[in-house]
Every structure is written in C-alpha cells, then in structure tokens.
Amino acid sequence: MWCQSCREEYEERDAGTCKECYEEASETEEELKREIDDLKSKVAFLRLASPHDLVSTTDLVLHASSSTSPSSPSNPNSSLCTTPAVPAHRAVLISRSPVFKAMLENEMEESRSGIIKIYDVSYDVLRSFVHYLYTAEVLLDEHMACDLLILAEKYQVKHLKIFCEKFMTSKVNSENAVASYAFAHRHNAKQLLEASLSLIMDNMATLTEREEYKELVEKDPRLVVEIYEAYLIRQVNTAAKDLTLQP
Amino acid sequence: MWCQSCREEYEERDAGTCKECYEEASETEEELKREIDDLKSKVAFLRLASPHDLVSTTDLVLHASSSTSPSSPSNPNSSLCTTPAVPAHRAVLISRSPVFKAMLENEMEESRSGIIKIYDVSYDVLRSFVHYLYTAEVLLDEHMACDLLILAEKYQVKHLKIFCEKFMTSKVNSENAVASYAFAHRHNAKQLLEASLSLIMDNMATLTEREEYKELVEKDPRLVVEIYEAYLIRQVNTAAKDLTLQP
C-alpha cells in the first residue's frame, strides 16, 4: 500500500489509519492552524505599545530600589538606592495585577503620589517586568526568569509566572536541580518543583556531595527531609512493581 | 486492516496513511492544541479591563454624534445631537489606531481638550467600538458588523475590520448580495466583495428585478458595469473550459 501522507510504500503491519480518518485529521490540522493564525493576530492587536513609546500619556512611575525592603530586616546595612523611573499607566497595572489593582484603586500612598517603589529588584528586571505587562513579551535568560518569577508571584501576574516557570523547568539539570528545587519551594512553582525533585532522585548517589545540598541542610532541613521522603516513596513503588512483574 | 484512529476495519483500497505518519500527525495535533492553549491564555492576559471598570484612570472621552459630520453636506438639516460620553485612555487609542495616534500625539484640538467627537455613529456602536479596542471582543449582528466595519476603516483598526468583514461574508445570501456588494465596494472589503459578487453572478436571471439593483443603477452605475464585466469574464472562461472538455 501507498501512504497518502509521505507517499511511500508500506507493509500491512505498518498500517496507520483508513482514508476517512486521514482526511478528517488533515482537515482538523488545517482548522487548528487557522485558529492559531486568528489567535496570533488577536495577540498582535491586543499588545500595547511599550510604555516608553507612550510616555506622554503615562500617569505613574515605578522605581526599582536595589536594597531590601524596610520590612525585611535581613540586610540592615544596605542603603536605599533608587534607579531611573519606569513610566507606566495605572490602567495597565490595574488590568494585569490584582495587587496593583488593590494598591491603585484604594487611597494608598502609591495611588496618591503616583510613585510605586519596587524593592529588591534591578532596574533592568523592573523594566522587563513592566514591558511584559504591556506586550506579553520578554527575552529570558536564567537570571531574568528567576527574578521575574519572583516579581510575578509578588504582584500575582499569573501569566508571567507560568511563562518563567516553564522556561526554568526547561533549564533544570543535575547541576542546578537542588538550587531549583529550593527556589521552586520558596515560590510555589509546582512544575519546577516536580522536575527538579525528579532529577535529584535520579542522581541520589552524588546528592550528599553537592555544595548546595550541604547549604540546604543548614538553611532548610525540612526541604531535605521532603527529598528523602519522596525518594523513599519512589523506592517502595519500584519494589512493588518489581514484585508484580516477577513470574 | 484495522484503523488505529477509528478502530474500524478497512479494505486496502480505503487505506490512508502508514503508522509512522499517523503517529506524527497525532503529535502535530497535540502540539497545535498546546499552542492554541498558550495563545488563548496570552489573549486573556493581554485583554484590558473594560474602560468602564477603569473609569477613575481614563484621560479622555469620546462622544457619539448622531448627525452627519460638518464636512459632509449631504444632510444639512440634521442637528448635532450629542449622546453620553464613552470614557477611554489615550494610551489604548494610540496603541490600537494610527488615526487616533496621529490625533493624540500631535497638538490637535482633540488632544488638548481630551474630547473626541465621532460623527454618524450611535452611542451603542461607539461603546462597542471602544470596548473592542480594550478587549478584542464584541457581540455582532448584521447592523453592528456594518457600523463597526465603517468605524474600523475610518480609524484604521485593521483587526476589527477583518473581524466584521468575516462575519458579514458569512451572512451574504441571494437577498442581500447586491447591497453587500455595494457596501463592500464603498469600504474596500475585498473578501465580502468577492463573496457577494459570486452570489450575484449565480443569480443573474433575477438580478434586474431586484429593487437594490435598480437603486444601484441610479446611484452608482459603474458598480453595475463591473458586475456585468465580471459575469462576462466568467462566461468566456466557462465556454473555453467546455470547449477543452469536448471530445
């Protein structure tokens, strides 16, 4: 027989679908592609210009403060150092983040002054964050993904958090698995947590030699306990499966 | 053989694809569906809240004036009657429409006053228009599609124009084909023009009896000439094809 798709001959044992299903699948594919084109043009339409191109109409500014927040006493020696302002529109921040919405729709200091200070973040990260709120676009590297995920979590910008988490999950390897695991735990990133935990368990033999492991035992031993508990469950399940498979 | 998709038996002559192609197609379909989900969540993210929910941050208003524009002398007796204001943000109008961009980024009266008058449009249509600029969403009927297409053309909101044109094209029938054809001509709606012209040509026998045809001959005879020219080309092509097919 001849395959209608690749146009090559095949044996009966390599048969796939009947003609009707093949034609139906081709139609479905075309429909899905049309839907993708429609959605892409909708995304392009809904994307706002960058706030820098709309600067004459902005009605507030965000400042990146590279020190820790006053409410975080862990680093009391750092000074509050303010970088250039990032202009933005209240309407956009309100639409994208429930935290900004609460801040700007109520009579809070930020709403009155039109100045929002964002602590513990660099100017570049803040600019990328705001740019994403306008365009849903950002060029990620591992540092940027990490910093933006933290901001996205803080301001409840779910879409950006998922985007960064997907990127970080794609970058997990045996080298950074422990650090990723701790990070994922701290910032409620389930997908990243599962991927890094799975990789840690694949490399249990060398786990205790790792520097990050030793640090984690010091800093947050409960997280280490969770690794061992997950490993134990996996071992028990594997043993049970082996038993079932025995003749 | 058994089809791997519908699980039914088929004869050799009804064979579709080989197994490899079937599996590849299934993977492609899954990928396309994932892409659709990603794009849908991007659309949801980029959608702004309606301007009515952001009213405290709006920085201009649009007024629907149900009379003709002062520059259009065809209806000199109508009075300028202004309906309730539709609040909006300069930043959104600038992002969505090159016409609003030119108007608001230059020192034009609208930019200084923060008031934009939109002529020849009802309040409902204007509200839907502005709502679309924020959300890419609108509930269309034939009248709304027609009015919004005109606005979209005037303010160069290409995405909305395409959306309305698609809707109108899906509603063309032998009853409204002549009116649709004239409308499409007036507003550069190619897809609608082709669909309505094709339908007119399918019903040439009754064309000259139609009221809208008679009106069109009065108002814009060149458009009627174009119908006949297209019909002639079709007839010549059909005749040529028939000749080729003769034994």
Automatic annotation (TrEMBL), chains A, B:
PROSITE patterns: BTB (PS50097). The keyword Oxidoreductase does not apply. It comes from the Eukaryota. Residues 18-49 form a coiled coil. Pathway: Protein modification; protein ubiquitination. The keyword Ribosomal protein does not apply. Residues 58-142 form the BTB domain. Keywords: Coiled coil. InterPro entries: BTB/POZ_dom, SKP1/BTB/POZ_sf. It holds the Pfam family BTB. PANTHER family: SPECKLE-TYPE POZ PROTEIN (PTHR24413). This is BTB domain-containing protein. The lineage of its organism: Eukaryota, Viridiplantae, Streptophyta, Embryophyta, Tracheophyta.
